[in-house]
Amino acid sequence: MDTDILVVGAGIHGAAVAHAAARRGYRVRVIEQFGRPAEGTSGRSSKLIHGGLRYLETGQIRLVRECLREQRTLLRERPALVKLVPFYLPVYRRTSRPAWKIAVGLWLYRLLGGHRFRRLPAGEWQALDGLDSRDLRAVFRYFDAQTDDRALTAAVLADAQALGTGVAFGTRLEGIACEATRCVVHCRGPAGVEAVTAACVVNAAGPWVNRVLARATPRPAMLAIELVQGTHIVVAGELRRGIYYLEAPQDRRAVFAMPWKGRTLIGTTETPYRDDPADVHPLAAEQAYLLAVYNHYFQRGLELTDIEDSFAGLRVLPAGEGSAFTRPRETILHRDPAAPRLLSIYGGKLTSHAHTARQVMKRLAPLLPGG
What we know:
Blueprint lengths: L2 E6 L3 H12 L4 E4 L16 E2 L11 H17 L4 E11 L6 H13 L5 E3 L16 E12 L1 H14 L3 E3 L3 E7 L4 E7 L2 E12 L5 H5 L2 E2 L7 E11 L7 E5 L6 E7 L2 E5 L3 E3 L10 H15 L8 E12 L13 E3 L7 E5 L6 H12 L7
Parallel strand pairs: 1-2, 1-10, 2-7, 4-13, 8-11, 10-19
Antiparallel strand pairs: 3-6, 4-6, 5-6, 8-9, 9-10, 12-15, 12-16, 12-17, 13-14, 14-15, 18-19
Helix pairs in contact: 1-4, 1-7
């Protein structure tokens, strides 16, 4: 056997699984189609390590508690990369949720493990980065965390490498032959085609998850999913007080405006996506939507030509009815009895990557050496 665990994908979940496995003493190899980690969704997120305040509205209590617990761990273990930041949540006359309802949600958020919050007196509103105060009824301040998603992923992967994990960049999966006692993974990298035998394979390919399963024999069952594009834009000027949790006037979705490397990052959108994940890119309509939200709340009058940068990533959500905004965000670990040594990660959140990795290791432990 060449390795105990072969991980497909060097995004945050692939890196976290590699780290968790290496810490337990297993031999680990990671293959990644791109030339560096976090080239997919893990480098194109909203840069937040948060509990998911809005998930309370859809009853995802367990997910919120889990994410808040993991947030506290990251604040303690990776203080250079994960910082607690104030969030401001303004309530206007036309905001869909009244102030009392938001206060109840923040109280529950605090009870589940979140940080302190308060309602700001009107005398402090003028200091909020030029936030429009017309028809403003209340402003709540609470705390969540922000990170550099690409740097966090690279740090987790580097920790795995320090424990002996081998990482092959620029390496594409050709196929996986699932046998009773092992998997044989065929991949093509800079040195050509290679066959690697592994006790188990973890499919952490993000939006490519079902494309990986399509290359496995026997063919495992695939979960029905929808890919949802999330775009962010970057404009000049920095919001100095913190991050703003805004309700888009167009459709009442949540949009964040936040300081980011001396500029302002605004996101995100939710657009169905059906093409090759490698081709995802910001759409003009998405950029206009985000700019309109920012202009509405901060009266900046910016135009599309003022956008300095933009990027788009893909969420993996379970197929179903209703909008992506209300769809469950629980991570799904999937394994077909026809190929029990191949485990796939569907979805997943940046915040809870270590928790997901621990769950993966629990599932795989009986199939690994010493299990």
